[in-house]
Design goal:
The complex is a heterodimer of chains A (about 100) and B (about 130). Chain A is of the alpha/beta class. Chain A has 4 helices and 5 strands. Chain B is of the alpha/beta class and about 130 residues long. In chain B, about 40% of the residues lie in helices and about 20% in strands. Chain B is built from 5 helices and 5 strands, in the order βαβαβααβαβ. The radius of gyration of chain B is 14 Å and the shape is globular. The two termini of chain B are about 25 Å apart. The chains are: A alpha/beta (about 100), B alpha/beta (about 130).
Chain lengths: ~100, ~130
């Protein structure tokens, strides 16, 4: 399953909820959600813990729009909209944690 | 692969409508098909033709209209959400005694059944919202 997160961890508990519930699959951070994938973010440790069982992606255009593309947490894969569509297609289900 | 897209957020609110638009465009450019884009809750505000953003800003509504016309997209606005927010086509104006219409070209007003059908007919349905 693809879990799509579009809010910062300090705005909504969506990322934590997804990390808690997801057992395998992928997490895609988009919009303000990409802040979670920056070095030094409050959720960096939790994100790194989850990397063993989940693949973590962040949407490149949203990282760039926020000026944080050069502060990416190690282990996070950057995708464009092409990759976003591919992730939705590759995963049998997707959940937007709104 | 057949996609459908659910938009639950209005334009200029945060980013969901823009993200949904970029996603829809990429889905089509990759050779997939879109069965339907369904606008629900505040997302129905994407369907008003009366919006007038500043000239140097994007016109989210016009972008959706153009995509619908260029790609023959079926873009459905939820009727109950539209009534609450004053999004009106000719049929709704007549039915509810309104003196004007504002539904943008490329959109049509229909019911939640269209969302259910989109879920059944599509391989994937992706939600964008706030």
């Amino acid at each position: 399953m693809l879990n799509i997160i579009n809010k910062t961890p300090w705005d909504r508990p969506a990322l934590d909820a997804a990390l808690q519930c997801a057992d395998g699959g992928s997490i895609l951070l988009i919009e303000d959600g990409v802040y979670a994938a920056t070095r030094g973010s409050a959720s960096e440790a939790r994100l790194k813990d989850a990397m063993g069982r989940l693949k973590i992606y962040a949407l490149g255009p949203d990282l760039e729009a926020r000026g944080v593309a050069d502060r990416l947490t190690e282990g996070v894969t950057v995708v464009g909209y092409d990759g976003f569509v591919d992730l939705v297609a590759e995963n049998k289900t997707c959940q937007s944690w709104l | 692969m057949i996609f459908s897209i659910l938009v639950n957020e209005g334009p200029y609110q945060h980013q969901a409508s823009d993200t949904a638009f970029n996603f829809a465009k990429t889905v089509l450019s990759k050779g997939h098909t879109i069965f339907r884009v369904f606008f629900y809750h505040d997302g129905v505000n994407n369907g008003t033709r009366l919006t007038t953003p500043p000239q140097d800003d994007r016109n989210v509504i016009a972008k959706w209209t153009k995509l619908a016309q260029d790609s023959e997209l079926d873009m459905v606005v939820c009727v109950a959400a539209a009534q609450r927010r004053g999004i009106v086509d000719e049929g709704e104006a007549k039915r509810n005694g309104k003196d004007a219409t504002n539904l943008a070209p490329g959109f049509r007003i229909s019911g939640l059944g269209q969302l259910i059908e989109a879920g059944i007919q599509s391989d994937r349905i992706v939600t964008f919202g706030d």
